[in-house]
Amino acid sequence: MNAVKGTLNHVELIGRLGADPEMRFLSSGKALCRFSLATNRISGQDAQGIRLYETDWTHIETWEHLAELCNTYLHKGRRVRVVGNLRNDSWVDKESGQTRYRAFVRAQEVMFLDPRPEQADAPAEAAEEEVPF
């Protein structure tokens, strides 16, 4: 955790990838992998008392070796646990001249929660096992 003089910036999410990860290499040679993560939250209940859910989408960013692992093993729909910290980015849009903002999570850990593809036919109890990388 990142605790600095009485503050804390710690994010932990469990969700599913909304699309395949996007990987690129910077001019410095560092690997950068980005993906979006869908998480659900309870937003109330309907007239029959059934819980209603809303989906939140969070941008996730991984670097170097973790980026390469995510790019290799993650695909749309896979379930993961992400631990990291919240970051904010801003830039000036070239077309409109307006300042744009984006919040994202810089992941320090990504745990792959679905079984590996070769384990897809494994017994149900093995499918629940967390597979750390």
Notes on the protein architecture:
The chain has about 130 residues and is mostly beta strands. The strands form two sheets. It has a five-stranded mixed β-barrel with strand order 3-5-6-8-7. It has a two-stranded antiparallel ribbon with strand order 1-2. Helix content is about 10%, strand content about 55%. A hairpin with a 6-residue loop joins strand 7 and strand 8. The C terminus is likely disordered. The chain has a domain of about 80 residues: Nucleic acid-binding proteins (OB fold (Dihydrolipoamide Acetyltransferase, E2P), Beta Barrel). The chain is built from two helices and nine strands; from the N terminus they run ββββββαββαβ.
Short description:
This protein is mainly beta and 133 residues long. It has helices at 64-73, 124-127, and strands spanning 3-4, 7-8, 11-17, 22-25, 31-45, 51-63, 79-92, 99-112, 131-132.
Cα-based radius of gyration, to the nearest Å: 18 Å
Which architecture of the domain at 10-89 does the CATH hierarchy give at level 2? Beta Barrel
Number of strands: 9
Q: Mind summarizing the main beta sheet?
A: 5 strands, mixed, barrel
